Amino acid sequence: MAITDWPEGDRPREKLVQRGAAALSDAELLAIFLRTGVTGKSAVDLARDIITRFGSLTAMFAASEADFCQIHGMGPAKYVQLQAVLEMSRRALKEELQRGNTLSSPKAVREYLQLLLGGKAQEVFVVLFLDTQHRVIASEELFRGTLSQTSVYPREVVKRALAHNAAAVILAHNHPSGVAEPSQADKMLTEALKQALGLIDVRVLDHFVVAAGTPLSFAENGLI
Length: 224
Known about the structure:
Elements: H1 12-19, H2 26-34, H3 43-54, H4 57-62, H5 65-68, H6 76-99, H7 106-117, E1 124-130, E2 136-144, H8 154-163, E3 168-174, H9 184-198, E4 203-210, E5 216-217
Parallel strand pairs: 3-4
Antiparallel strand pairs: 1-2, 1-3, 4-5
Helix pairs in contact: 2-3, 6-7, 8-9
């Protein structure tokens, strides 16, 4: 059945207008982006198939163009549009962090890092550099590794903190395995960075591990 034949209150666009975007499922939101389905499938059916194929919205956004375009009905134009939506979301969240205190906006920090690192196939280490009011000055990917590990050099983090005249930093890296539990190496690295940055009076406010689900905060778990 075509979406136009559904009861008005069940159609994704009308539902969004009436009840807000938060009331829609992942598939319904994606269906609005897709606009149309393919032969024998509504946009919502196609959206469900896409999410099932990749496992999550995060994994879908992280998919390569080649993988995304293997889906019937999807092509380079849709891939480009999807990446544009993702980048606009990242920039909007970054603007929010630049305007306000990151410590008073933990949800925005988590959402930004999830969009930035979620679904990546390699370990990536990112640093958010903050001013004295804990607003984001810059966000930089400093190191990239393999599927299971990356090498992080404290001296490079210190150099970038000095370059940005940062007063504090938030560290973040992803676990492609999908398990957010920090390793002993993660804990030792965090301590090494705290000591190195402490020498130039830069505080390490938190270290997030991004994996499946909500990013894990070292600070909230008493690890920093």
